[in-house]
Design brief:
Elements lengths: L8 E5 L4 H12 L3 E6 L2 H13 L4 E6 L5 H15 L4 E4 L5 E2 L12 H25 L2 E5 L12 H21 L4 E6 L13 E2 L4 H14 L5 H13 L4 E3 L7 H4 L1
Parallel strand pairs: 1-2, 1-4, 2-3, 4-6, 5-8, 6-7, 7-9
The structure holds NADPH dihydro-nicotinamide-adenine-dinucleotide phosphate.
């Protein structure tokens, strides 16, 4: 089984940087039509230009904040109006956090992690499901090894990724054979997230750097390009999981 992506329509959230950007290039090299969503529109236009040069049949930019259900509805609606179909939805947009619970003055600040990572994926999925059912399409979900790894200082992020994993495992059952799910649980991948772009409360950046160094010594940090390649290859084969086993070793350090 190998899905030919030529002319198929792929919507990627968080396509303005990191894994999402490189997923766009991977799908582009397979001749897909791309719908690129995120908040930084200029970056999306640059990605669209590169994607066209790499072989995308077409690449359109739709400014989208996945926290806003109306943005999600518009993204899917414009996709269908323009391309007439949707084959792959990639729920990739995400942010991370670093803090100790007891250092946090206002815990409600961290609701945003759940809003983007979990609810953003749920909103996009609920808007896209009718069209994915028609095309017998696929949803690619960027959860994380963090969904099963109790990495300290990352409780909110870990919980959001575990929620995603469980939600989409359940969707797998609800959708049955009509809509495939590829659940991705990467370890450390070089990107803006791992270079220190996250919700930080209490000055944990230095600790993060230390954690990162230990992780690097235990399990290799993946290149964004390799991660994207593995995800698209696996999704196009119709497989259900992309996991990085090397990450199990890091649990030795956490405990
Ligand atoms: P990046 O920070 O490079 O990319 C995150 C993307 O999400 C950006 O394009 C950003 O775009 C977008 N985004 C953030 N908030 C929103 C929002 N409200 N609405 C729409 N888009 C949004 O990080 P990565 O590429 O590393 O992360 C991609 C996914 O992979 C995330 O879900 C992350 O949790 C997951 N992951 C990453 C790992 C890693 O080690 N890097 C490991 C495991 C999982 P913009 O700011 O323009 O909106």
């Amino acid at each position: 089984f190998s899905e030919d992506m030529s002319g198929k329509v792929v919507l990627i959230t968080g396509a303005s940087s990191g894994i999402g950007e490189h997923l766009a290039y991977e799908y582009a090299s397979r001749g897909a039509c791309l719908v690129l969503c995120a908040r930084r529109v200029e970056k999306l236009h640059q990605v669209a230009q590169t994607a066209r040069e790499m072989g995308a049949l077409d690449a359109v930019v739709i400014p989208t904040d996945v926290v806003k259900i109306d943005d999600c509805k518009r993204a899917v609606h414009q996709t269908i109006t323009y391309f007439g179909r949707l084959d792959h939805l990639v729920n990739n947009a995400g942010i991370t956090s670093i803090c100790l619970l007891e250092d946090v003055d206002d815990v409600t600040d961290f609701r945003t992690i759940m809003d983007i990572n979990f609810w953003g994926s749920v909103y996009m999925t609920s808007c896209a499901a009718p069209y994915l059912r028609l095309s017998r399409g696929r949803i690619i979900v960027l959860s994380s090894a963090a969904s099963w790894l109790p990495a300290p200082r990352m409780s909110f992020y870990n919980a959001s990724k575990a929620a995603m994993a469980q939600f989409f495992e359940t969707m797998r059952v609800e959708f049955g054979p009509d809509i495939g799910i590829t659940l991705v649980t990467p370890g450390f991948v070089e990107s803006e997230i791992t270079q220190g772009k996250f919700l930080d409360k209490g000055g944990h950046l230095e600790v993060h750097q230390e954690m990162r160094d230990v992780q690097v010594s235990l399990a290799p940090v993946a290149r964004t390009e390799s991660c994207a390649k593995a995800i698209v290859r696996t999704a196009c084969r119709g497989e259900r999981y992309v996991t990085e086993p090397a990450w199990f070793r890091t649990t030795l350090w956490w405990h």
